[in-house]
Amino acid sequence: METENRVFLSTLNTDHINHYISLSADPELVANMDWKPFLNDEKDRFLQAAETLSVPYCKNGKAITFNITSAIDKKSIGYISIKGINEVESCAEIGIAIMDKEYRGQGYGTEALRKAVDYAYNELGLTLLGLTVFPANQKAIRAYEKVGFNKKELLKDSWLLPNGEYTDMWLMEFCRE
Questions:
Q1: pLDDT over 70 at 162, yes or no
Q2: Spatial contact of 63 and 81, defined as CB atoms under 8 Å apart
Q3: Share of the chain above pLDDT 70, in %
Q4: In 4-103, where does DSSP find H-type helix?
């Protein structure tokens, strides 16, 4: 059951990052985010992972990373990034992670994504948002589709895994004219 205003977005800070580092070894996150769990002194690596670009047309540009907070209990539950912001082409990439497993699968991420998409369009003036997702991550794909993202292209062998192999990623887009 999804209700509006269960989450709010705010600036991501060091306390949030420290909290998320402590959750980063969760097996579902490791599989779906394809990262090696973070150590306490790896705040920069964590932020770099949150802001890594994977959409082909988002090669550079600034990033804005928000903390996702549950409005019900004021708990920090994840982050969302608008990255590779290209004001000339009016596009950016978006990435999200619900780090606290107690809040996954309940619509919190979908609501946070809607809020970030609205911010990208209404505050930043962007018209195209892209994201990539592993084909096996069906829960995320369903959430992205609920918000209005559509599968655009299967990017073959586009993501380098920690074991040195490449894997496919779906490119999904949300376009507002």
A1: yes
A2: yes
A3: 98
A4: 14-23, 27-33, 43-50
In this structure, whether the domain defined by 7-129 belongs to CATH 3.40.630.30 is answered with: yes
Phi-psi map region of 7: left, alpha, beta (phi>0 left; psi -120 to 50 alpha): beta
Least confident of 13-17, 57-61, 71-75, 128-132: 57-61
**Can you say whether residue 171 is alpha, beta or left, with left for phi > 0 and alpha for psi between -120 and 50 degrees?**
beta
Which is it for strands 128-133 and 166-175: parallel, antiparallel or unpaired? antiparallel
CA-CA-CA-CA torsion for 105, 140, 138, 28, nearest 10 degrees?
A: -70
Place of tokens 């909290």: 19
CA-CA distance, 38 to 107, in Å (whole number)? Answer: 26
DSSP state, residue 165:
-
pLDDT at 165: 87
What does the domain layout of the chain look like in residue ranges?
7-129
Q: In this model, does residue 177 exceed pLDDT 80?
A: no
Residue 32 above 80 pLDDT? yes
d(C-alpha 129, C-alpha 133), whole Å: 14
Q: H or E stretch including 142?
A: helix 138-147
Q: Are strands 62-70 and 7-11 parallel, antiparallel or unpaired?
A: antiparallel
What's residue 3's pLDDT?
53
Give the tokens for residue 145: 């589709």
Beta bridge partners of 81: 65, 95
